[in-house]
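Data availability (excerpt). The following record was deposited with the supplementary files.
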Amino acid sequence: MQSVDAIHDMPNGGSALRDDYDAILVDITKYVYEYDITSTEAWKRARIALLDALSCAIETLHTSPECVSLLGPIVPGTDTPNGFRLPGTAHQLDPIKGAFDLGSLIRYLDHNDAYPGAEWGHPSDNLGALLSVADWLSRSTNKDATASPSGKEAVVTTLQSAMTLKTLLTAQIKAYEIQGVLQEKNSFNAVGLDHTILVKIASTACVSWLLGLSQPQCLAALSQAFQDGHPIRTYRQAPNAGPRKGWAAGDACLRAVLMALVTQKGQPGAPSVLTAERWGFYQTLFHGKEFIRQREFGSWVMESVAFKLFPVEGHAISACEAAIKLAKRLKEKKAGVVEEIEKVIIRTQKPAFTIVNKTGVLRNAADRDHCIQYIIAVILLKGDAIDTVDYMDHSSWASDPRVDALREKMEVVEDVRFSEDYLNPRKRSCANGIKAFLKGGQEIEEVVEYPLGHPIRTETLAQVAVKVRRNLGLGFGEEKVDEILKAVERDDLPVKDFVDLFWKGEI
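Predicted structure:
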């Protein structure tokens, strides 16, 4: 079975790398095409991350009719022979719409993995693009004209045979790395852009590699991705927070696949797309600043990505844990939550203060799941962790007056030390502290610096395994779940055979 790297050595109309392309684009391209992943930990965690993301997709299918309504071909009844088989459904789609659908399913409930930095994001978002393309190529035959970067049938057949689980995992590890490294020191939210721009960039590079494009073609595709219109993050912030934040990653995946396929058709790139005076990305959208990297591309991000074991915005997960502990202590004291609590001070890091500190009316589920006060209030009243359904419009909590009564008693403040430790590469904590002031002058406080799911917590991977089995069990029987868990360990398994384990159509 031939590897994707061998395909890049075949004639495909490419040429030597141009030295006039912006340096960061060259670095990304060389990393994707030339870096050899040797970290045992990265390979191990990539398999777990793949299962975690797909389990999130299955959870969304069985929890969110809103997301399900977005799935399927744009034109109903459209048939795509040898197309991507969307996990958990009977849809077989072109790779562009498939990327949108899977990216949306993985991300919609805010339950997939996360990586911190000056920007924050969710590296498994990239799997929408990577898996849809890999599965499509895995099913393609030598009659599928669009599958070959050169138009030669031999390349198509070779690409088909190269689409193994190891190929997918390789692309996954590298997409995680590109997104994560660019997040660490570069704040896109500070200029009003959404973090999903990095999903588009990372996925474009790795999809180009999967398609068998040459390195010069990858450069061109990356420049197309940076020229592409970029999302503003108003759909994540009050007063416009809404469900688009659930499918923004799907949109980024869609555009990544489109940019790579457009380049495959011969469209040239823009070598100084970032640095061109007046019209380049840095001048027009990044306040004249250039990207900063605190590390070279390797496999660090996959080795240290955080998994989400509560359906809570990432920077509020430790607040979720702290609230659960606080609720237990209040119960032990037999203290009524609304009646006994006079005031609540929530200490948090700057990202949480910016993203999930929200007062006033909460208009929809997307608004609620990005409100740290709502999350804490529900947990204190419920006495247990918050669930996805607790954000929904039909949830009793969404209309419970006690929730708003508690929210009114809360004050969110930035703790400078929490913010510093969050950005410190040696600590990388994600802390929250909750102090409840009770009638009679008593105070109760809980602080959690490293939430469950953080790589520093030794129980994280075992709990991810529980989450994966629980979510997969929503769509499949125990025997099928066992088969999926065994299959992910097989490097030589064709991607199409892996995806078929999740498909609901006729095989």
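Summary of structural features: Confidence is low (pLDDT under 50) at residues 10-15, 142-152.
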